[in-house]
Amino acid sequence: MKRIGKLVAVIAALMLAGFISFLVWKENQAGKQREAEYTELQNKLRPLEQEKSRIKKELEKLEEGYAEKSELTASAVILFTDLDEKIYTEMYPKMKNRGYVGVLALPVSQLPGQSGCLSQEQFDTLMKAGWKCCLKWEEKMDHEEWFKACEEMMEKIGISQPDIVYFPQNTYKSQSDEFLVEKGIEIVVHHGERGLPLVVTEVEDGMWHPGSRGLRESKTVQLLEEAVELKGNIIFTVGSDIESENYNESQFNSMLTWLKRYCDDQQLVVTDLWEAREQRKRAEMGSGELKESYEEERRQLEEELEVVEGEMEELLRGE
Q1: Pairing of strands 187-189, 212-214
Q2: pTM of the prediction?
Q3: Phi/psi at 181 (nearest 5 deg)?
Q4: Is the pLDDT assigned to residue 114 strictly greater than 90?
Q5: Crossing angle of helices 249-264/220-230, nearest 10°?
Q6: Among the listed residues 310, 312, 313, the one whose alpha carbon sits nearest the alpha carbon of residue 48
Q7: Three-class SS of residue 259?
Q8: 4 to each of 1, 14, 15, 17, how far by Cα in Å?
Q9: Using CA atoms, how far apart are residues 244 and 254, in angstroms rounded to an integer?
Q10: Sorting pLDDT into bands at 50, 70 and 90, what band is 151?
Q11: What is the mean pLDDT of residues 299-308?
């Protein structure tokens, strides 16, 4: 009887061990199946996660690009009111090193090659380097006499007619605009006559009236800071018409340092009047079109992102 009892106990123990082994085996099989299912899920999720990451990066890039394109930058112009040879020998090298171009106002009483002026070769070098020129108003001549003298001057130095006229300080009168428009002039540079602002932020319909100030006048730095803050345009004049325009190496270097500081921070560009005007035109005319294109691209990317996230949710739910 005892022998039978022991036999039953052994059989029971073996059966229990076998049952436990079966449970362990079954759990192992279930674990392997879960691991396989998890691996399969990860393999399905991985390309979707990569696609989601790509779309998000595209959205960030789109946002950054739109912000950059829609941001109007302040502009500064350096305008020389005579043809002093120092423009080429002293000021041009300093500006060239910083990638800046200037604008030469052409008096009818001065020509490249004359005594005290830069040579024709130097003038041509500046033009090839991207510098521009404009006409300089002569108050002592009547309108037609002045313009005829300008035509003769332009023919002698070999340039086509600019569409900008620079008025020396206290010579601009709005009555001249009608005559200038008839002659193809689109930009008039003043010194704040008639209460016109020195820093301009918009392009007017018809004639554009950007303001200028002598390099050595008081509060020059404050004026530059105002242009940067308002994202406007300011012109600094260097020449011999008035004392505040006279070239001074130290002050000229100081101005270039201030300009570079804002340029390095991408708050300002030093350019010519044509590009300054076109930049503002593009900003005003293209803002609506740019926004429409941006919103359409963003909508498409957001729809793509929604589809990818939906597929990921379905996989995670086991559907």
Answers
A1: unpaired
A2: 0.69
A3: -60, -40
A4: yes
A5: 20
A6: 312
A7: helix
A8: 5, 15, 16, 20
A9: 15
A10: very high
A11: 88
